Amino acid sequence: xxxxxxxxxxxxxxxxxxxxxxxxxxTLDKERTLLFDLNTLVDLEEEYGDIExxxxxxxxxxxxxxxxxxxxALKHEDENLTxxxxxxxxxxxxxxxxxxxxxxxxxxxxxxSNEKN
Length: 117
Description:
A two-stranded antiparallel ribbon has the order 1-2. It is built from 7 helices and 2 strands, in the order ααββααααα. The chain has helices spanning about 10, 15-20, 40-50, 50-60, 65-75, 85-90, 95-110, and strands spanning about 25, 30-35.
């Protein structure tokens, strides 16, 4: 179901297993780690109804989904971090880079299914 968002293995250079545990590093106000764990995926489902719908908003280039997804991916670092505080961390000239990092984070956070369609 999430295959729409998988980044090809060449981009990750075969490091998916390592990144899955550590998240994806990003520099905002300081170096931070983006992570989608079970709790954050539940937050995404509660907010959007479906994880793919959440990331469609990110792909559309809209600011609100970018801020929301970044906040959800950072909550593991600080449960008191607010969505508005995260918005202050996003330089407008880095929105595309942040979107790419969020997609990469989802890719490395969710193991690929071995099921064949």
